Amino acid sequence: MATNAPSRVKKLINDVANVVPESLAGLGRAHPDLVKIDSANLVVLRAGGPRPGKVSLVSGGGSGHEPLHGGFVGLGMLDAACAGHVFTSPVPDQMEAATRAVDGGAGVLHIVKNYTGDVLNFQLAAELVAGDVEVATVVTNDDVAVQDSLYTAGRRGVGGTVLVEKIAGAHAEAGGSLAAVAATAVKVNANVRSMGMALTSCVVPAAGTPTFDLPDDEIEIGIGIHGEPGRRREKIAPVDDIARMLVDPIVSDLGLERGERVLAFVNGMGGTPLIELYVAFNSVAKLLDQRGIEIGRSLVGNYITSLEMAGFSVSLLRLDDSLAELWDAPVHTPALRWGV
Amino acid sequence: MATNAPSRVKKLINDVANVVPESLAGLGRAHPDLVKIDSANLVVLRAGGPRPGKVSLVSGGGSGHEPLHGGFVGLGMLDAACAGHVFTSPVPDQMEAATRAVDGGAGVLHIVKNYTGDVLNFQLAAELVAGDVEVATVVTNDDVAVQDSLYTAGRRGVGGTVLVEKIAGAHAEAGGSLAAVAATAVKVNANVRSMGMALTSCVVPAAGTPTFDLPDDEIEIGIGIHGEPGRRREKIAPVDDIARMLVDPIVSDLGLERGERVLAFVNGMGGTPLIELYVAFNSVAKLLDQRGIEIGRSLVGNYITSLEMAGFSVSLLRLDDSLAELWDAPVHTPALRWGV
């Protein structure tokens, strides 16, 4: 009748109830050499089973942030990823199944974004396997935008999580002990800060309507990856100005000084085209130039998303030689691959 | 005043006139080991200059399809990419500059999507370098949606172009002659077919308004990569049904038979989240299963886009051992990387 009342959600889906399992099935069909889908538990497992003697990495969280986490399962990164419903924490049973499935006898590191449900459920899962599997946990909380938020006590875990998973994964692949790999993950989290912004809302499939309202001429600075509120709303501005609103708090919070070297990560929220992400990267690079901060490594693309939200986040990781070497180490996952 | 009248286009840009040069600058800043930007000519060049004795590959076209083509410059793929304004062909001078810059004495292959402006301008560029550089040209025209269209005589070049660039690039890297590399490019184009669909329009920065109107409950089947009309409009439907509307014409046109093996490429148009692209890949995989067609290789992601258009395209490439081997060969570009 009214064009405002579509009969279905306008998305590439069959049934809102099956988005996550069908997406995981597609991941498995596209990358059978890399991943195996445990469809009963909605867990993405590294193909080939556990590696005896290797520390295994398990992450997970609500869906809707793809490729995070399932797209990061494979050599040199995660051994398993637990998928919750869209923007909803997975349950402890999933995390327990994943942890038991990947343990190669050297213990399992849980990488957990700091959201209350994720933290609680991973903790319960660790208790469920206690005595059988040695578990260490690192909680990522790199988002400088807000101190507490809708779903968190303390800062949110966002883009830095991708870097934690890559670098800790490389250390595990190189034979690090559980304590050493966990220490590397903690070190990355301690040296990375992030902040994001949104031009538009996203639409959760089961809701069918935008998560939040943002006027045509406004943007949200400090947005969360579930569309939860950030610091403030601003009028739409040139991306050079927007980038400054993100980079300044990051540089300040991280205490980055002239002459330091960073990994600069410009992440798309899902609905922003790559042509704009590279414009944004150019803005970030100019700001770092002005501050005398060297870009030692970079990553540009959609790696931790909020469905089709338009916008981007910036993450800066303070690099030393050890972190740079682990970053460069081979990785072979659906979403991140080099050296192999 | 009215929220429908924003003071600026709601995009991550500074100035609509500088979107392309600033995006190229960002590409250069993010990947200095891979590419060098000729900012006077808006050409992305492979870092390190021409390889003596290697056939070089040059492509290009209107911007707004990123990562195509600049994101495919590097080892095992393109040697240069010419960037036009958004959805506008580059000019012959750009193509001439690119061709001269990359020639290593073994000749240059122009890979041209079949759009009238691109074809004409690459032809003029080939004439401008005649006598200095040996040029061969392959025109891609893999889109089965329409026979002629707004910007073409004959079929449009779309997703198959990515596969042509990867596979011909591998052959050039392996030392193939200009005639042999051109023959490989022609072979890929002859064995690939594509078709796309859109859920939403895109917004060209200089226009600031949607390229076309699509009601909230309708989709466009057979859409072009500039939002140009496809075959028909349909009511929004389950993605299993949409995938069938794309796969059936491709399979039929390519004459794919039970027992054949393909590379299955599910490409995002720019604004569709990855979670949906994998649901779509699953739909495509089920359809190929039903037809007894084996998925030998796969590619899922945003590789030839239409700014922030939501939707996807399917490309199927009939594989033989030689094409599969060239597909698997090392590639190192901003957007596609493996084996190195």
Helix-strand layout with pairing:
Two copies of one chain form a homodimer.
Chain A (H helix, E strand, L loop, with lengths): L18 H12 L4 E4 L4 E4 L9 E8 L16 E7 L5 H11 L5 E6 L2 H14 L5 E6 L19 H14 L4 H13 L1 E7 L19 E4 L10 E4 L3 H16 L6 E8 L5 H17 L3 E8 L9 E8 L2 H8 L2 E2 L4 E2 L2
Parallel strand pairs in A: 3-4, 3-5, 5-6, 10-11
Antiparallel strand pairs in A: 1-2, 2-4, 7-8, 7-12, 8-9, 10-12, 13-14
Helix pairs in contact in A: 2-3, 4-5, 6-7
Q: Count helical runs of chain A.
A: 8
In whole angstroms, the N-to-C terminal distance of chain A is 54 Å
SS class of chain A: alpha/beta
Number of strands of chain A: 14
| Biggest protein-protein contact in the assembly | A-B, 75 and 75 residues
Q: What's the main sheet of chain A like? A: 6 strands, mixed
Count structural domains of chain A.
2
The CATH class label of the largest domain in chain A is Alpha Beta
| Rg for CA atoms of chain A | 19 Å
C-alpha geometry of chain A: globular
Describe this structure in words.
Chain A is of the alpha/beta class and 340 residues long. Helix content of chain A is 31%, strand content 23%. The first copy, chain A, folds into 2 domains: 19-190, Rossmann fold (3-Layer(aba) Sandwich); 192-338, Hypothetical Protein Tm841, Chain: A,domain 3, CATH 3.30.1180. Chain A has 8 helices and 14 strands. In chain A, the strands form 3 sheets. In chain A, strands 1-2-4-3-5-6 form a 6-stranded mixed sheet, sandwiched between helices. At the A-B interface, helix 1, helix 6, helix 7, strand 11 and strand 14 of A face helix 1, helix 6, helix 7, strand 11 and strand 14 of B.
